[in-house]
Amino acid sequence: MLFDTHAHLNATQFNEDVEQVIERARAEGVSHIVVVGFDRPTIQRAIKLAEQYSFIYAAVGWHPVDAIHMTDEDLTMIERLASHPKVVALGEMGLDYYWDQSPKEVQKEVFRKQIRLAKKVKLPIIIHNRDATADIVHILQEEHAEEVGGVMHCFSGSIEVARQCIDMNFYISFGGPVTFKNAKKPKEVAKEIPLNRLLIETDCPYLTPHPFRGKRNEPSYVKYVAEAIAELKGLSFEEVAQKTSDNAKRLFGII
Ligand SMILES: [Zn+2]
Question: Is domain 2-252 given the CATH code 3.50.50.60 in the classification?
Answer without folding.
Answer: no
